[in-house]
Write a structure and sequence with these properties.
Layout lengths: L5 E2 L17 H14 L19 E4 L2 E4 L6 E2 L2 H6 L3 H18 L3 H5 L2 H23 L7 H26 L12 H23 L8 H22 L11 H21 L5 H19 L2 H4 L4 H4 L5 H35 L6 E2 L2 E2 L3 H20 L2 H5 L3 H20 L4 H20 L7 H34 L5 H5 L3 H12 L7 H24 L8 H24 L6 H14 L3 H14 L5 H9 L6 H17 L17
Helix pairs in contact: 3-5, 3-6, 5-6, 7-8, 7-9, 8-9, 8-10, 10-13, 13-14, 13-16, 14-17, 16-17, 16-18, 17-18, 18-20, 18-21, 21-22, 22-23, 23-24, 24-26, 25-26
Length: 654
Amino acid sequence: MRMRMRSRSNSSDAGGTSPNLLQDQSSRSAGQGWLKGKFPKLFRSQAGPTGTAGVGGSAITDGQQIHEEEPPVVIPTFEQNLEDRNLREAVQLLIEQEQRLFGEIRESVALKCHEEEVKKLATDREALEELVFQTLEKSLEIDGDNMAAALRSAVEAVQLEEQQDQLWRQNQRTSPSWRPSGWRKRHDSTLRRLVERRLDNEEDQKTPNNQQSTLQADVQGMGRQLKEDLLLVVKVLKSCYPPDMDICNLYARMFHQSFSARLKKIADYVLEDKDGTLLLLWVNKYYPGILQKPELVNEIDAEALGKLLPEHLLEPLEEQFLSNQQSELKTNLDNILKEEKEKWTNGDEPSREDNCYVSPVAYDVIVLLNGRVTSAQMIVGDQQKAQSITVQLTDFMKQYKTFQEDVIKQNRANSKSLIKATLDCIQQFSDVLVKKKLPLAENVRESCLCVLTDMRQSAHAYLLNPIHKVLKPHYQKLGTSDWLKKNPFEKLMISVKKELEDLQGSSPSCHQELMGRLHQEVTEQYVRRLLKGDVKLKDREKQQNAYQTITDNAESLHKLFSSMGSQEDWLKEILIKIAEVLKLQDVPAIQMQIVSLGSAYPDLSEKHVSALLKLKTNLSKTDRKNVKETLVDTLKETSADYDTRPFFCRIEIK
């Protein structure tokens, strides 16, 4: 390319930036002033080494005047700027020439005399435009400072052209044929084609491995290219653009639109399950994850971009995925229960940990559900949708309950140990459901808790009923004359201690709960036999004797069951309150004690009070009626306390 040097002068086509010369001649003068400030003065007065400065650039030395001429400042020509990729300077030179030809030369005849200059200007513009957009097309291939500087210069050139287009729009005169140039629009369309080409090339170059389908390899490749290019934009290209062009979000929108268009085409086809899942992963996890990278999160408005796929395409993919997840979850749950059944059918005892029977059912199910729901939520991007797969847990619990009923019904040699292990599973399930540690829909949670409550009661009954059968002869002697004379309660305690040994083998928390249940049931049997009315307490002495016997029995029961792990201290209080009623002689005092008992245990009924008071045969019918009425009035005024534990409602009075 031909090189040409030119000396700096005050002519209108000098290098540097010139303001608009299309408006009036005053702006031309202003432009000359800007140029003087932009470049060094062409000539300066300099003082000699020993003399003083003279006029016109001469110096006086030893009485002789020596004329020194300063060399002119060399300004690069258009061709040099083009070769050095100084595109901003090149476009500025052409704009100045354009302003001179079309702004200063007003007469059409005079302009006609410059046809060759106009043609030359048009040719130069074409060469410059080609180089500017070649540079822009290589924006995402920057690998050094020189390329970054060239891109920065190209961007500035686009900006100058945009400004010149605006000036011509505001001017009423005939504009050059190349105006408006539309470089800014072409800039955007060039970047858009560049983005398309980047994703196309990545798609074409990827080959699937043994674990990937072609589609998966394509999508993964495009996603990887998108991430790498956006990081390059933020780290390098951002510095080549002015803030008002918001280049990071511009590229992000283009990549988003291009990537989205490709995924839409894929989603329109009937996909295999794994391909549909891959699309959901890119929509809800991988792509948002890229935009949340530390380098990008503050530069790109991810919310404004939205999702990669619209709802009408996402819904069928989600339905397909969730349906498959439900089927797979059901199969997994069935297999867990099937394995448990097989071990029991084969006569195997549950494994033991710390001398406690344990079963893997609860742990396996909880881990499975957590993993499935967490994975589903990540893939579909919605917790409520992900939770829909847990509807299978309701059916599993029902099947688990049916299996337990079969274990109890058949009562095999290994049934009791399995039920003890199952209690631990029930406890684990209940803990995660009550504390809402499992991501379940509320209706599923409540349904499962109901099933677990039934299972716990059934398991307790299976383990405790044989004990009550052994203790029945001792229960029958409670509340009788022999109870006060011979005190058969000691024999009851001896039998209870013996039977408790057979209840060992549950986990500590389950054993504690089982002991509490037996503690309550023995206490209920005690009160039930007492209220049956076989014993008649005709005088104060017998009533005092009954009081002492009941309080001693209450203390013995409490001591025994507490030593075995029961935490039901309130059962001792019930027996002592009943004993107090039998001891008291004044009706007002009896009324207060009944009110105290009824307030603490609102399930205390008139029938219970009547049966208790009938033991005191020296109490008149009228007094009994007054005491009962006091209880009724108290219960009406007292709001129900839902935290109180049921006791008297379990004792039927005939």
